[in-house]
Amino acid sequence: MSARNVTVAMLLVLVVLGTWSFLNPAWELPPNIATYGHKIDNLYYQILWITGIAFLVTHLVLIYSLLRFGHKGEGTKAHYSHGHHHLETGWTVATGLMLLWVAVVQAQTWNEIKVQEPTAEDMFEVQVFAKQFEWNFRYKGADGQFGTSDDLYSTTELHVPKDRVVRLYLRSLDVLHSLFLINLRVKQDLVPGTTTRVWFNAMQTTDEARAKYGEKFDFEIACAELCGIGHHAMRGKVKVHSKESFAAWQKGRIAEQEEVDMSGVTNLWNGKPEGYSVSFWEYAGTIKPPRAEATH
Amino acid sequence: MSQGNGHDHHEMSFFRKYIWSTDHKTIGIQWLFTALLFIFLGGGLALMIRMSLARPGSVLDSNYYWIMTMHGTIMIFFVIIPILVGAFANFLIPLQIGAEDMAFPRLNALAYWMIWPSAIIMLASFFVEGGAASFGWTSYPPGTGTEVMSTSGMTAPSGGSGGLGQTLWLVSVFFVGMTSIVGAVNYVTTVVKLRAPGMTYFRMPLTTWSIFITAILAVFGTPVLASGALMLLADRVIGTTFFQPSHDGNVLLWQHLFWFYSHPAVYIMVLPAMGIVSEIISCFARKPIFGYKPMVVAMSGIAGLGFIVWGHHMFMSGMNPVLGMTFMISTMMIALPSAIKTFNWLATLWRGNIQFTVPMCHAIAFVSMFIVGGLSGIFMAATPVDIHIHDTYFIVAHFHYVVFGGTMFAVFGAICFWFPKMFGRMMNSAWGYIHFVVSFIFFNLTFFPMHMLGQAGHPRRIAWSYDVLKDQGYAFLKEYQGMNEFITICAFVLGFAQIIFVLNVIWSSLKGEKAEKNPWKATTLEWSAASPPPHLNWDGKIPTVHRGAYEYGSPEGKDDFIPQDADLTKA
To answer: Which of B411, B329, B541 is nearest to B75 (CA)?
Structure first.
């Protein structure tokens, strides 16, 4: 049991386990329901292949060298070389080209998802505001305007229709948060003082997904930016509806809101605290936020 | 007296020699033991993090966040950076370039002693009301900038960082920054001015090169961190609003300032490790380092590009996505010099005459782990893919592969390699191998599965993901809870294995076998001094350098190595 054999054995196990784990079907991204999601997933798997091969090749060279070129005893000498100009140029250029190719491919998808704005006419718009440790959502009413009396509100659950471009406007009341919709391949920080926005188009309703993955399945929302001691509890769900079920939800929500006093909620959403210079959608922490209990 | 820099030859008292010493070797060893002390604090905190994730509720949620913050802070500012650019830079630069001491020995001592006020302030913050800082080592405002905001309509966010702990954190980091700058100025000056006769830049060992480049990074980067910390401190205590959105401050400004330093800081934490590994691999492959100049160019490339990639930490921050594209391209570019270095290490091993000593095993582990960590970085650099894995356990796996799998293994290797020079004794190699094997296995078992957690979407920095007993939490992570428990068990083994190492260091420094001058048959100048070297290193006889740093296996020599200072014409 020489040090060489132990080192080589450990590296071999690393290579075998590493290769096994990335060929393993368990090494799979969570289900995707966004129209552009497969592009992200394909890029992920592409990079997994490229890096997987690079990992294998470099490790096999490493293991071979360790086995083949062990010390041959006192008085022997290694091959004497200070380097090889062509070899050096070769692997530099090859690696450079590969990285450049990866960057170009990535840039196209990034451009499509993040830089180009969706232009759909019947875009479904939702305002999101996050506060410690809660997600809040506002939807337009029948008048197609935000900030009017027929707005709909929800907490923790984001309700959206299937097969429609959904655009979210994101604001934070207090600290940084990050909206992470795992199955929609969305992640965007909420930055106090500015509005950030993201879009997606869901291809599957929650009901359809439940038929596939079990009754309790939900598209979950996570907070991906440290926001305080309740960070781990800042969870939520995206409910994707078919056309009919979305209309039913809207109707039910209108009825629910009529029964309770919504002034606290609307004040919060429309308020403009002292000292703030931006008028749209700024909040003071002193005003009570809308809570699930207050709206039911 | 030599060079009028305050050194004298007379016998010094214990106090003068070990406490107020200006000898670079003593200061290096002081840094080493300071860092080894803090590694247990940082490591203990890491195990508490793992407890919380494996058994939700075993650590109070309100405690988890400061524990996580302090783990990162202590490991970066009080372990990794001190050990690389404190311990090894101090110990090695003068010995490797043939100088009697640093250019500014007293400044050097000051740099070391400034770490203590900083450390004490950081440690004190554990005990103040509200606990220590709890918004991560990145301390993003406005979560961290609101101590005085209650007077202007905004309440301090709950969860710690409204308190004194965050203020103390900023003061402490400011001091650490000062330490870095003072140290770095000294290293740069020493390398530029005090090289021995014949020691041209391109004859310098790669360790010295890497520290030289790192020091230049620190000189340019750290002032930005220090000024950022001052600005945030001003927001907290005197009511400025640099980062306060309620008063037209800009939240993202902090992220830009922070990462403008902290991305180069990532390279500060790995470049010296690369230098060290080059040194060890060349020595034990008994072969000149493959592509010495490409290695230097690659390190300089990493340093230069390191200043234009900071935005890749901010792809999802709300920064203009077009800017994201630019940062992606610069980030892909920086992968190139890292790849070149890896190829050169492999080519150095190729047709070598490899000796599997303890330091060599660690250096090989570095190469392997750095490959994994480097490759996983490409996922994050790719902006669309980053949408999914940003701020998940994928990034946690990535940077632990670079900083623990990479840098820490290089540090273990370096300690074993230069131990005879530092203490005049050999380190026990049987325990060295045992520590290496256990660490390598359990490091991988701890961190490799984190890639899978990350691709499943497990957010980082959360106290726990799914509480099986209470049946609550992220339902999509329920099936990964078993993996979280497995990781925790492995992390504990990994943590406790480090006790072997520290005991070995302490035991060997007292009872180890006496070391000769050059036990590894190495070529660089430090091995021409006694073990341990006396004050002023060569008793006034500065060596003259005749050749490059890695003349192993040269047909010119009788042995398979020719020291840099050997004059073959006289022999």
So the answer is: B411
